[in-house]
Specification:
Elements: H1 14-20, H2 22-45, H3 53-63, H4 68-92, H5 99-120, H6 124-131, H7 135-171, H8 173-187, H9 189-192, H10 202-225, H11 230-250, H12 268-284, H13 293-299
Helix pairs in contact: 1-2, 2-3, 2-4, 2-7, 4-7, 5-6, 5-11, 5-12, 6-11, 7-8, 7-11, 7-13, 8-10, 10-12
């Protein structure tokens, strides 16, 4: 029986549903937890209600904590009790990993974005960072540190700590990663309807989801090679957001794309670059993405 159907239970109510369909229950809770809390911000952005700045920030903060991680502990508690929740907590702060993996986690997204956008924008982002390398300390690293709180701690114990091991066990690393990345991208929909990640466009939503699906292959590869460390996934999430912000700030508004290259500016460059990188990871790992079934089995217990 697959991880999506789970085991048969005689319990009644939602606990029974969780035991019978653990992954479906997890994703329903992950979506509902965030979407319900952020919904007033969506209504505020459409002018249906009016929120004070303080309340809007509070809802934004709570929405970053109310989804995937809460869902992971809820479902884990039903499936495995306090012992399972304790194991998930320990993996969340499993900081031991090789220095090379810390280097990968901190800089891989920055390297990819910097290379791609420097190629398209005539080397401007790379030249800007070379002229002011102190930005790595003054802008990039502080963003990484703050990103561990918002959004990493509220997401990664769920996406990577709970869902990924089960998806890989059920569908393999490639299909499991595609499922997780796609759902992760769609999960952001309400935020795309607010000033947080908006303004919303159909093209922007499509490219966002496709980029999320492709970028998730990097997360899976890192996760599998760091013994299922949720901490490393959290750090990778924080550094990816920090890298995106830094590279965006380095793109000069004086440089404009023309012709067919104008299309790349609307998000398709991210889709192309991360899709190519995902294909390279699949090829060089022969489709395993570093997945070891024996090691992964212990993460599902």
């Amino acid at each position: 029986m697959s991880a999506l159907t789970g085991t048969v239970s005689t319990e009644k109510g939602f606990s029974s549903f969780i035991r019978n369909h653990p992954l479906i229950a997890y994703f329903l809770l992950a979506f509902a937890g965030m979407w319900i809390v952020i919904s007033p911000l969506v209504m505020n952005s459409f002018g249906w209600i009016e929120l004070s700045d303080g309340l809007a920030f509070l809802l934004f903060f709570l929405s970053s904590l109310s989804g995937p991680t809460v869902a992971a502990y809820w479902v884990t508690g039903v499936l495995e009790g306090k012992a399972g929740m304790g194991r998930l907590f320990r993996r969340t702060f499993q900081v031991r990993a090789g220095l090379q993996w810390y280097a990968v986690v901190l800089f891989i997204f920055l390297a990819i974005w910097l290379t791609a956008y420097s190629f398209v924008f005539n080397g401007v982002p790379l030249a800007g960072l070379a002229a002011n390398p102190a930005l790595l300390l003054s802008t990039f690293l502080p963003s990484v540190i703050s990103g561990l709180l918002i959004p990493s701690i509220g997401e990664e114990p769920g996406w990577r700590g709970f869902a990924l091991p089960r998806l890989q066990a059920a569908y393999g690393p490639v299909i499991g990663t595609l499922i997780l990345g796609t759902l992760h991208g769609i999960w952001h929909l309400p935020a795309l309807l607010t000033p947080l990640l908006g303004p919303f466009t159909v093209n922007g939503f499509i490219t966002f989801v496709l980029t999320a699906a492709a970028g998730t292959f990097i997360y899976t590869w890192v996760f599998n090679n760091t013994r299922g460390s949720v901490w490393m996934a959290m750090l990778l999430h924080a550094s990816s957001n920090a890298a995106s912000q830094l590279v965006s700030s380095l793109i000069s508004k004086e440089v404009e794309l023309t012709g067919w290259m104008k299309t790349l500016e609307s998000g398709w460059l991210n889709v192309i670059v991360f899709s190519l990188f995902a294909l390279l990871l699949i090829l060089f790992t022969r489709g395993t993405l570093g997945y070891k079934p024996d090691q992964a089995e212990s993460l599902n217990q």
